[in-house]
Design brief:
There is one protein chain. The protein is mostly helical. It is built from 8 helices and 3 strands, in the order αααααααββαβ. The chain has a 3-stranded mixed β-sheet with strand order 1-2-3, covered by helices on one side. α7 runs antiparallel to α8. The longest helix has 30 residues. It is elongated and about 85 Å long. The model has no long low-confidence stretch (mean pLDDT 81). The structure holds zinc ion (ZN). The site of zinc ion (ZN) has 6 residues, from β1 and β2.
């Protein structure tokens, strides 16, 4: 099966899981199970997000989008993050209500049965996806699979907690479980929103990647060769660097272009997938961009 097929399967399983867990909540009235059902929304978001990444975002550049479609993923992650944030807050409110007015749980056996079916389904899928992700080195698929595994553990925790409620009669444990799951969902939602904001704001590359760029450039530094105005940005899985290469004014264009090619190759070797834009300038001329860092 192809990566996209796994991801489509993962979207279908997420929808089924939400149905099964919502059924479990409906039968038992447990807010813990409700929060677990809503956590599956995160899976649905994650799976559709990954699917978008490997289809739309991977589309080659076209005339209208000459830099590619790598930012497509940020729209969906921002939107989904906000939806999930709202879901987590709703769970916290219902958990607080339930804490104040404890309710007995009904048909717990059947409810937990449904939840376990969903959990086994997710566990098997996560295992198959992780195996495929390692085989084809797909980051999107691996991220989705890892997320699914955390969800499996959350569900196991919720089920064990509710069994404890049944055995001990401590009804307050149910809203406590719900609140714990909600806080975890909140954390993931904030992560999704931050990721999308970082992307839309053209966030700089990570410091360690910037260091590899500096190291690659250092190889070419010379009395007569200077690099400045280095800026980096990320767009989806694409990484960009813009910089000036200053060289003696009397160099031939052929010689300058040859050096630029070597610098480009060194940069791409140091940072896979990097796209470098190198402006050639004489040593004593600076291009003005109203850049506050501009020394001239
Ligand atoms: Zn410059």
């Amino acid at each position: 099966m192809r990566v996209a097929t796994y991801l489509k399967l993962s979207v279908a399983v997420a929808v089924a899981t939400i149905g099964l867990k919502a059924g479990a909540w409906w039968l038992t009235g447990s807010v813990g199970l409700l929060s677990d059902a809503l956590e599956s929304l995160v899976n649905l978001a994650g799976a559709s997000f990954a699917l978008l990444m490997v289809t739309l975002a991977a589309r080659p550049p076209d005339d209208d989008h000459p830099y590619g479609h790598h930012k497509a993923e940020y729209f969906s992650s921002g939107f989904e993050g906000v939806l999930i944030l709202v879901a987590a807050l709703a769970i916290l409110v219902s958990a607080a209500e339930r804490w104040l007015n404890p309710q007995p749980l009904e048909q717990l056996g059947l409810g937990l049965g449904l939840s376990l079916v969903a959990t086994v389904l997710n566990g098997v899928l996560a295992w198959a996806m992780l195996r495929k992700a390692r085989e084809v080195r797909s980051m999107a698929l691996e991220g989705d699979a890892r997320h699914l595994f955390t969800d499996v553990w959350t569900s196991v925790g919720v089920v064990l907690g509710l069994v404890a409620v049944q055995l001990s009669g401590w009804l307050w444990l149910d809203p406590l479980i719900a609140a714990a799951v909600a806080l975890n969902i909140l954390r993931e939602a904030v992560g999704l929103v931050r990721r999308s904001v970082d992307g839309l704001m053209d966030h700089a590359l990570e410091p360690e990647v910037q260091a590899s760029i500096e190291d690659a450039l250092a190889e070419f530094k010379h009395e007569t060769i200077r690099f400045d105005h280095i800026s980096t940005r990320r767009a989806g899985t694409r990484r960009f660097v813009d910089l000036h290469m200053h060289m003696p004014a009397d160099w031939s264009l052929r010689r300058a272009a040859a050096l630029r090619t070597s610098v480009e190759q060194a940069l791409m070797a140091a940072v896979p997938g990097l796209r470098a834009t190198i402006q050639l300038l004489p040593s004593d001329v600076e291009a003005h961009f109203d850049d506050p860092r501009d020394p001239l």
